[in-house]
Amino acid sequence: MARAIAGLYVITDARRPRRVALESAVESALRGGARVVQYRDKSDDARRRHQDAKTLATLCRARGATFIVNDDVELAVAVAADGVHLGRDDDDLAAARAALGPGALIGVSCYNEIERARRAAAAGADYLAFGSVYPSATKPEAVHAPLTLFAEARSFTDRPLVAIGGINADNIASVITAGADAAAVVDAVFAAPDVEQATAELVACGFGPAPD
Description:
Distance between the termini: 24 Å
Mean pLDDT: 94
Oligomer: single chain
Largest sheet: 8 strands, parallel, barrel
């Protein structure tokens, strides 16, 4: 059974520098209180991507966290991920649902487009992501998604809403106050000198004390 989308949502990114190995970094983030992990790697090294995703799926399962694969439905199926996250240019939602089954989580990037969110919710998306809510070093070209989108989306759906883009310890509380159920981060965790500590600080700022 798929787990929930809520709390701190960390995203790996093969394009961004990491201080430690992927598995160790993700394990540290989970110890710090991350509740969702998304594996994002758009490289063409299929063998390594499969091994990475399989390792992280096992790690998240052991920790009771939700594991999501970015874009790649086939990989999500192969490693028994909890679900997949789809962007504008990825597989359509119906095809992903057919491949993954009714119990999987399918998230959709809605950018700053409330009508895209409305269509995705009607089509059966399990969660909706808006961003970039703040300027992002990971995707500096991303459109700006105002925090008012969360209240707008809540008027027509009860599905989890995820904020992404430029979120850090200074602004995560504002994101949650605006109505986001989860806050997605990349560099705020994985570029930090101490991944576990950075994660715990974000959790405490946005969601209350980190779990023991």
